[in-house]
Amino acid sequence: MKRRMAEPYKIKAVEPLTMLTYEERKEALKQAGFNTFLIDSADVYIDLLTDSGTSAMSDRQWGALMVGDEAYAGSKSWKKLEAAVREIYGYKYILPTHQGRGAENILSQLKIKPGDYVPGNMYFTTTRAHQELNGATFVDIIINEAHDSSIELPFKGNVDLQKLSNLIQNVGPERIPYVCVAITVNMAGGQPVSMQNLREVYELCHRYGIDVMFDATRCVENAYFIKEREAGYSNHKIKDILKEMLSYSDGCTMSGKKDCLVNIGGFLAMNDEDLYARSRELVVVYEGMPSYGGMSGRDMEAMAQGIYESIDDHYISHRIEQVRYLGQQLIDADVPIVRPVGGHAVYLDAKQFLPHLQQEEFPAQALAAALYLDSGVRAMERGIISAGRNKETGEHNKPRLELVRLTIPRRVYTNSHMDVVADSVISLFEKRNQISGLRMDYEPPTLRFFNARFSPLSENQELIAAEENVVSTQ
Question: For the structural domain made of 22-51+313-469, what CATH number should be given?
Answer without folding.
Answer: 3.90.1150.10
